[in-house]
Design a protein that fits this description.
alpha/beta; UDP-N-acetylmuramoyl-L-alanine:D-glutamate ligase; nine-stranded mixed β-sheet; 15 strands
Length: about 325
């Protein structure tokens, strides 16, 4: 049965340790809290989409080890279809150690064996699910040729292509991938890389988004570091600031971008307009960075305080000719 969204991306065991301060060389620090979670950007996005009511299939790789089994069990409990997750013999499941200090600053230690990256054959094996879905999310820490193969399978089936991040590799692999995208989301650093310009202000981000749009994506979402995100399509240039619940601090910023992608994709997949998608995306990110670890919690009660800080979409007026198109036929 077709699902709403297929996510191609990293699956890992997340070990999150909270400390007062990260120790220097020759020093030690007591761990305040320890969390062991299903993680990796692909898994985080898939879980967020499921929490927002989407049916979702995850395409990724774990080892044929006990850790991989535990992660797949957790993904199933989270409502994520794991039939297209490969259990790779001869490799360990990826591990991400995230040390978070009292200011919410994170420090990553990653063990991501090359064999845990998605391959072309892995994507082809999931081709029927990709072509039948409404939307495909590709997390661009995967090899560029694999991401392009997934995007091409999606385009052939009329599936919306959402890219998260900056394509790796040179322009010969980057440009075809951008050309195959309907939506691209990037953080400030990735946005500067793609746009070829500094992004220090909202205006910088809007100009950068238009420059990227000329290379393929209909909708571009770029972060303005420390400020918020711009959402730019053919008709509209929206800026929404970061949200913060009164009295809440930043627990850990690592999962904010993944939650933003989940909120954006869920709304577009459901046929929502750009302004509605932007609100949910920003609220989802705001709710997630209050938590330690990248795992989202996107229930209504968690999202409401953040949605209440954002302007409601305007009613009436002419529809957006690009973002207003919904359904598979409009994307063919």
């Amino acid at each position: 049965m077709p699902v709403d969204v297929v996510v191609v991306g990293q699956v890992a065991r997340d070990l999150v340790l909270t400390v007062a301060d990260v120790p220097g060389a020759g020093e030690q620090a007591a761990v305040r809290r320890r969390y062991e979670l299903l993680g990796g950007k692909g898994a985080n996005q898939a879980v967020g989409l499921a929490q927002l009511g989407m049916s979702v299939t995850l395409v990724g790789v774990v080892g044929a080890d006990r850790v991989g089994t535990d992660l797949m069990e957790q993904a199933g409990l989270d409502g994520v279809d794991t039939a297209s997750v490969v259990r790779r013999e001869g490799t360990e499941t990826a591990l991400i150690v995230n040390v978070v200090d009292s200011r919410g600053h994170w420090h990553y230690l990653e063990h991501i064996p090359e064999a845990t990256l998605v391959t072309g054959p892995d994507v082809v094996a999931a081709g029927a699910a990709i072509a039948a879905a409404e939307s495909l999310v590709v997390q661009l820490r995967q090899p560029a040729d694999v991401a392009l193969e997934a995007a091409r399978l999606a385009r052939a089936g009329g599936t919306r292509v959402v890219l998260d991040g900056a394509p790796s590799g040179d322009e010969y692999s980057r440009e075809p991938l951008l050309a195959a995208a309907d939506v691209l989301r990037a953080d400030a650093r990735e946005g500067e890389l793609l746009a070829g310009r500094s992004i220090a202000t909202v205006r910088d981000a809007i100009l950068g988004a238009h420059a990227i749009r000329e290379r393929g994506p209909e909708l571009v979402v770029l972060e303005v570091a420390g400020s918020g995100n711009v959402f730019v399509d053919a008709e509209r240039e929206l800026f929404l600031p970061h949200t913060r619940r009164s009295g809440a601090g930043t627990g850990d910023t690592t999962g904010g971008g993944d939650a933003l992608v989940a909120g954006l994709t869920a709304t577009l997949t459901s046929g929502g307009e750009l302004a509605e998608a932007a609100r949910l995306a920003v609220a989802a990110a705001g709710a997630t960075v209050e938590r330690v670890g990248g795992r989202p919690d996107l229930g209504p009660a968690t999202l409401r305080p953040h949605l209440d800080q954002l302007p409601h979409p305007p009613t009436g007026g002419a529809p957006n000719e690009t973002a207003g198109e919904t359904g598979r036929a409009a994307r063919r």
